[in-house]
Amino acid sequence: MLRRVIALLQTPPAYLVAAAIVAVTMTVISILFGYLSPDSWFYILIAEGLRQGHGCALHGAYLGVYPCGYPLALALTAPAADTATLMISSKIANLLLLTGSFWFIWKASQNILVATVVALNPVTLLITLYTWSENLELFCICGAIYALTRVSAGAHPWRDRALLALFLTVGCFTRYFFGPFAFLLFVAAWLTHGRGTALRALPAFAVAGLFYIGYEGFNLTMSGYTTGMPRVPAPETPYYLVTTFIAAFWHDAWNMLVALGLLLGLGWPLIGLRRAAPAAKAEPGRHAAAMLILLAGAAFLGLAFILRARTLFDPYDTRTTGFGIVFILAGLTGRFVRLKDEAKWPAWAVLASGLFSVIYCDDTSIPLTLPTLGTPHWALAAAHVPDLVYRGPKPAVMVTFDIPSAPDRFGNVETTKPLYYGDTILISPALAPDVTPDTPKTLLAKLDIVGLRSCAFDFTAFPTLADFQAYLDSTTPVDQGFTLGGTPAVTSKSNWDPALQRYLLAVVQPGKLVPCRQVLDLPVTQAALAGQTETLAQAVKAERLFLNH
């Protein structure tokens, strides 16, 4: 009986069932505990707009900051257009994209272990937990690698090139990063599959390139910027960028290596090392595919470092650099690791490695939150969407600062202003380092543009003056000292104009919604509009004394 069970656990169907258990477990956790960041809400809200016929827009206004590919995928896979449905269906869409990525790499590499390393690891599963465009990006990268191996084989040249063009174009429609990455993928294909394959694939890359240029041109016309927003140089020092890159790399690489060690270690009776490059006749395309995957990872990692070192956007973390590490380790696996018998696959190994990846992909968050399931400390966020939305009086224009955090019982759910306030016109202080920070005069000038027909300053997110002060104390780290031990000292810069900090401290009324006219009638506001620095300082002091009493 035991031998029969062991034999069953060595079959390909058992392996695939184990992989499916891991993926479905991840999806269930993502639904139960939300995993929605501010970016996630933008994708969901844009998908709602697409379903309602508004195009790639947020509350009816075109938004180019978030490419439309992923919201379109969410809109196409959602059974309904309401927020609660999209919160859940987005997780199902991520599962489908993960399954597709797994299948593409399996067929491209002809090695189930390589597909496992790409799809079922802490990095990929963390990203799959969240409603993020990187899920579709991974699908497109894996699909492009698969299509390139088909182009190399040459069985169906036109169909395969069309398939490659489709994946590359959707990728460019999903993340702006994908455009330059596609060029590096072309170079990698040339190096691994030869000049002939690269030239046959060139028309597909040209189509994607033209689409990318056209899409950025469309954004420029609609928003004034090629990526929907101004891009500023990275404010951090080179030393700080390198150290944070290394820290992010090591964090993800360590988790990946533990999962890979479990997969290969537990499956070692059925897994062996490939000591030489496979013979072309015996294993066609495996070596080239493995090297293409490895070079794709190196290109991803290098490009992510260079772009972030030049331009301010997301910090070095799993989202920005993780896939580079994933593809490098997957390529090395394909190059040096093999199944001893193609008919025997270690199902127990993928189950153990995969479940470890699910549980610890978000460090200790999942082990700590799982025990709350079914208790008063847990609630399904999708069933309580109104708790994420502003419920007070709703003027046409709101001057906003921060918003309340989502209830802790929703798990890993953050919220964002477009969700919280709905279609209300929002005015917020411009902050460094993204843009030049607002002064009191430039902030108040925005009110002249929208008018005061129905307007309020929202301080309801700050119960006390200390809470508002903490909000005003926000900074951006830009450098750190060198140390051989301990925690290095970090140098940060304020995100605020000092005059605006002083002005807001003078007009704030913690916990209240204050009509704009009331704020504008204050002496401190009149001084700010007049641009009188000394009068402003005196008015701030007087107004602070008045509000304290």
What is the arithmetic mean of pLDDT?
91
The gross shape turns out to be globular
Roughly what percent helix?
A: 55-70%
Uncertain parts: 533-549
How many strands, which pairing sense, and closed or not: the largest β-sheet? Answer: 4 strands, mixed
Number of strands: 10
Strand content: 5-15%
Secondary-structure-based class equals: alpha/beta
Enumerate the strands of the largest sheet in spatial order, edge to edge or round the barrel. Answer: 6-5-7-10
Secondary-structure map with pairings?
Blueprint (H helix, E strand, L loop, with lengths): L1 H7 L3 H21 L5 H14 L5 E2 L2 E2 L6 H9 L5 H27 L2 H8 L2 H8 L4 H20 L3 H16 L5 H16 L1 H29 L14 H29 L4 E3 L12 H25 L7 H19 E3 L7 H14 L4 H5 L27 E3 L17 H5 L3 E3 L12 H11 L4 E4 L6 H8 L2 E6 L9 E5 L3 H10 L5 E3 H5 L2 H8 L2 H16 L1
Parallel strand pairs: 5-6, 5-7
Antiparallel strand pairs: 1-2, 3-4, 7-10, 8-9
Helix pairs in contact: 2-5, 2-15, 3-4, 3-5, 4-5, 5-6, 5-8, 6-14, 7-14, 7-15, 8-9, 9-11, 10-11, 10-13, 12-14, 12-15, 13-14, 18-22, 20-23, 22-23
